[in-house]
Write a structure and sequence with these properties.
By secondary structure, this protein is of the alpha/beta class. Helix content is 49%, strand content 14%. It is built from twelve helices and six strands. Strands 1, 2, 3, 4, 5 and 6 form a six-stranded mixed sheet that branches. Helix 5 links the parallel strand 1 and strand 2. The longest helix has 24 residues.
Length: 281
Amino acid sequence: MGLFYASLMALFFGLAQVYSRQLKELPTSMINASTGIFGFSLLLVLSILFEGNVYKNIQQININSLIDKNISSHPVRILILYGSLREKSYSRLAAEEASRILIKFGADVKFYNPAGLPLVDEENISHPKVLELHELVKWSEGMVWSSPERHGAMTGVMKTQIDWVPLSDGAMRPTQGKTLALMQVNGGSQSFNTVNQLRILGRWMRMLTIPNQSSTPKAWKEFDENGRMKPSGNYNRIVDVMEELMKFTLITRDIKNNLVDRYSERIETAEELMERVKKSK
């Protein structure tokens, strides 16, 4: 290949020497334009010859290519993660309230209990709590993440669960295209640090994070002695968020593969993808 390019350069150099007098008589702008067009055409031809036609994987986008004719009829499957191990955990109580609302909307809801989950790299993926989390993530079509805010950030319990969720399973991405709703509880005044951090993580994991979110200030005042949330604007916001999550999940669950189908990955084989993911770990 190097010899080919060297020969090509020598050919153009020789042509330039032969026709140098004629070229001097042409306007500079015409020479620059001609050279640019010729160079672009040559690079395009060489690219197609040696790299393949890069445009063949660019597909026309229309509504029929996005809509799946086979609409799922089973209840929406939602997994809820919460970020505290306390016996009276307000992030868990808020998550349980969200669960009741989701069930009322017709969802099938499962919780993951983070108690006993090891730190990342403390154990391998064969640990029972890790396997349990992986299976629930595969089962789900959408998720709710509910965390307390501690020192202006999500808790370590919350982050550990998310860190154990795999970005890839072979050539598959378990979270890609699934919906996500975010909630946080605060011991003091209202803050959005945690939901903003969780939103970054959701985007990184290629999840469809819904626009609405919930942040409950002074959470200790929002629940009664039975652990139920009192009627308030904060409760109404959780209803809003869960309603939005249900709608987004119902609309997108059958077409999520089309929504997150990427050109850069269509031109990449499964083997190449696995090798790239391994290198990024």
